[in-house]
Amino acid sequence: MIQVTNLTKHYGRHVAVDDLSFTVEPGVVTGFLGPNGAGKSTTMRMILGLDKPTEGQALLNGKPFAEHRAPLREIGALLDAKGNHPGRPAREHLSALAATTGISKRRVAEVLDIVGLSEVADRRSGGFSLGMAQRLGIASALLGDPHTVMLDEPVNGLDPEGILWIRNLLKSLAAEGRTVLVSSHLMSEMALTAEHFIIVGRGRLIADMSGAELTALTQPTSVRVRSPHAGQLRDLLAGDATDIVIRDHDLFDVVGVDADDIGARAWSANLQLQELTPARASLEDIFMDLTKDAVEYHGVTDSTNNTHETEYAR
Questions:
Q1: What share of the chain is helix, strand, coil (3-state, %, to 5)?
Q2: Which of 213, 162, 222, 203 is closest to 186 using CA atoms?
Q3: 22 — phi, psi (to 5°)?
Q4: Helix (H), strand (E) at residue 8
């Protein structure tokens, strides 16, 4: 379990993390989300004792990180995929880490196999692609068979097979009762991987809730209807719908009338329905809406000359 209480970090006059409190529970994958500059990496560094809080505290399984006698067995973390010595082969890098905590060479071989690097384990890691470097970083995080796993942008550089692999790995770790915290900007992947979400902006907590609770914040944006009587159904709904978009001869989307109402009208008119699907906002849509006032850096497109500028919002 990770417990963050009133965590604050100042860099001069800049407040990177501002009175942040949350708990990451074991048994679920928790997504740690926020715009660039939201304070996610700083928070992770404070959890690991790499940065000292200005105020507040971060506890790992009830203790600060530095008070654990065998930290690699408590938490495995990946903050920088290129953080290892480029001249060392993957096996040597992991063996050196293992030696600091009394971890066996057999475990080194196990994690190399888990991440799919066994065949290149004796190659220097400086020649690895970003995806291979990510796998080595994840192997380092898993080395101590830790109770808690914390990964920052673990899917960067991974191919589709690798993304599916890390998704299933994280879910399996959570299913074993471990605490799993994952930071990523890839919303579509986080929607498939995480069950709980902590969203921050400008160093402050914006949301701390399950995926279902996040989705419940939004109303269905439209209802997809499929019927062999599509024309008659559209006529029935035309007076109340704010928009009807025809997708095919038997398929259309309705805005302004909910699914229950459409179903009731179809039943009363004895019109067959083959599909009635409310469409809700995606995690990306919800994230953008929740963080719209907490974005530090706004990209601006000049449609006149197709040039791009960066506006620094403070």
A1: 35, 30, 35
A2: 162
A3: -170, 165
A4: strand 2-11
Show pLDDT as tens, one digit a residue, over the chain (314 residues).
999 999 999 999 999 999 999 999 999 999 999 998 899 999 999 999 999 999 999 999 999 999 998 888 999 999 987 778 889 999 999 999 999 888 999 999 999 999 999 999 999 998 999 999 999 999 999 999 999 999 999 998 899 999 999 999 999 999 999 999 999 988 989 999 999 999 999 999 999 999 988 887 876 678 999 999 999 999 999 989 889 999 999 999 999 999 999 999 999 999 999 999 988 788 888 888 888 877 766 666 554 455 443 333 33
What secondary structure letter does DSSP report for 281? -
Q: Cα 143 from chain centroid?
A: 22
Taking each helix axis from N to C terminus, what angle separates 130-142 and 90-101, rounded to the nearest 10 degrees?
A: 20
CA 272, CA 266: separation in Å to the nearest integer?
7
Tokens (6 digits) for 94: 């992991």
Whole-number Cα distances in Å, 31 to 26, 120, 172, 200, 294: 13, 31, 15, 11, 18
